[in-house]
Amino acid sequence: MTLATQRGMRDPVAGGRFGSFGGRFVPESLIPACAALEEAFRDAWTDPGFRQQLDLFRAVHAGRPTALTPAWNLSAELGITLLLKREDLAHTGSHKINNVLGQALLARRMGKTRLIAETGAGQHGVAAATAAALFGLRATVYMGERDIERQALNVFRMNLLGADVVPVTTGSRTLKDATNEAMRQWVANVDDTHFCLGSVAGPHPYPWMVREFQRVIGDEARRQVAAELPAGVPDVVVACVGGGSNAAGTFAGFADTGARLIGVEAAGGAAMTDGTVGVVHGSRSLVLQNAEGQIAEAHSIAAGLDYPGIGPEHAHLGESGRAQYVTVTDDEVLTALKRLARTEGIICALESAHAVAWVMRAAGTDELPHGSTVLLTLSGRGDKDMAQLQVAS
Amino acid sequence: MTLRLGTGRPLLVPFLTGGVTAGWTDYLLAYQEAGADAIEVGLPFSDPMLDGTTIQQASDQALTRGATVDAILHELTAIRGRLRVPIIVMAYANLVLKVGIERLARAGVSGLIVSDLPLEESAELESAAAAAGIDMILLAAPVTPDDRLRQICHRSQGFVYAVSVMGVTGERTTLAPEAEALARRAKLLLAEPAASVFHAGSRDGADPVQRLPVLIGFGVSTPEQAAVAGRAGDGVVVGAALMRRVLDGASPADLRREVGALRAALDQGVSTATPYAEISGDRR
User: Do A281 and B49 touch (CB under 8 A)?
Assistant: First the structure.
């Protein structure tokens, strides 16, 4: 076995484990549904017909492949070669569309007529509502009351797409509570309803399935980068991490290369850096919690990174040393967003600006020496963040 | 912990969220006086994904007033001398993994129910519980297929918890029809020859003393529903309906009456079919 294959991101083993992380920690009522979903996904993912259909919708509806943009000006300023994988150009404005197209097609294949989804900032909710509209499925999106106030525009977008948005008024009234509520609703409506989970979290098969639906980011980037760089692969691959779906999809395309993989967390929501082993939302991973196991709230300027946990495969990649996880502060993020806008003419999402902030800080240091080549996934566009940026500046 | 069948009446296990009020242990004593066979104490959790509005609210209220797992277990230990009935802790996996099974055992806990720990994930905790002398009570759902239900029946200890409905905890106006079917399936499987090796039960389940009881829970809200569930299973767990009263400010004396009404309905519900015998003294 070569080093490269040893380092690859594999399918999870027995019961959905990535190393010691993952699993299926759900009530007995959901076990048959999780098992049926796993079987349906395995079947679809090995069916060339399903893959062709997904590729078609990715191309004609979502606008894939997304561009690879060399950040010429910023590269010159930082003394590195920075390539941006432009998920901000995908339909609905972020990488979330990759996952929902896959899950909606799968739901339809399973004979489900309704999607339910959890959302924090609203990006996954909008994407799920979009896919539901496209495939003629009903959609209900659960969203914390506090997030509904903060992200009114996305609530309107979901309504415009025909989805019901249900406020979640319990707990901290944010993403983690919306996820709990979606799980509860799934238990009660499992016959006709598919739970369209938005990240590489949750019970098996979600972390694996969502990574596979997102690996289109990494697979495309691998081909695109090969044409740009003499070495074929970049020295460093970097992406922001909340639950970790854009990072997982990006890393999947490079895990079997020698590239360093860097996940960038928000300093106020860094489950890899500050978390401990725990079980939340159906899997064993690292999570922000107190000594007794009560889950903590995350705090970040980017609502999409306001999540106390992280996908189990990231916990495994971090533990095994294959990927490295770092944090940046809200101030660094705001500075990075503005600098990218001025140098490249790209206003990225606050979430994506975390990855940019790390590159700016690390460039020219031992972490990222001059002359390094970097592939950075710009997970989404900044339109949703304008009101917040007006207040912040 | 042994919840003995054959006492001539269905078992009653009322639930209380630990730490829900300052004097929460008074409710436990009231439950006991009203004729509970065991009491389920829920550990409040920040992310109760299998609970409906009422238990979520109770959990939030407990955490907001500063209840901790450690304090709840201390308070349980403090009234241990006055509690004759077994205490069963119900909790989410994350809390159990943190607090550790030995700590529960030291607090005098006899049984443990972990709502988000299915068969595939529970083996490790089952052996730890066995070593600590705590019964692991496993849950079965209406959608659980027979082969899986058989494993649950054979691995569960104390009793088999039959979740009456596809849904979360909470009061309901009627008892879900799936409840009766699930309880019947579980009783049949418990009476199978494979089980008789351990339990010496007869094939047709006519010797219920020797097999594990099947208790119906989730949504059992009124004395009438309890009576129906008590006939279908071997007893009931009642949670949200009681917690609703506690959250609305009812006193331990009020709850004693509530549980007493459930007790009476269960006993009468059976007395029409089977002669009812008074059981006195320690029911452990």
Answer: yes
How far is the C-alpha of B255 from the C-alpha of B25, rounded, in Å?
Answer: 12
Domain assignment present for A180? yes
Interface of B with A in 145-164 (CB under 8 A): 145, 148, 152, 163
Q: Is residue B192, in this structure, part of any structural domain at all?
A: yes
Neighbours of A231 (CB within 10 A): 12
Q: Could you count the other beta carbons within 10 Å of the beta carbon of residue A159?
A: 13
The answer to whether the CB atoms of A282 and B69 lie below 8 A apart is no
Give yes or no for B63 touching A (CB within 8 A). yes
* CATH number of the domain to which B26 belongs: 3.20.20.70
CA distance A183 to chain B (A): 7
Same domain? A156 vs A246: no
Residue A178 in domain: yes
Tens of pLDDT, residues B207-263: 545 799 999 999 999 999 999 999 999 999 999 999 999 999 999 999 999 999 999
Domain of residue A34, CATH code: 3.40.50.1100
Q: Does residue A219 sit in the same domain as residue A239? A: yes
- pLDDT one-digit tens code per residue, A46-79: 999 999 999 999 999 999 999 999 999 999 999 9
Distance from CA of A378 to the nearest CA of B (A): 31
Q: Cβ contact (<8 Å) for B94 and A32?
A: no
Report the chain A residue with the minimal C-alpha distance to residue B57: A170
Is the CB of A223 inside 8 Å of chain B's CB atoms? no
A295 interaction partners in chain B (CB closer than 8 Å): 46-47, 94
ipTM field: 0.93
Contact residues on chain A for B69, CB-CB shorter than 8 A: 292-293
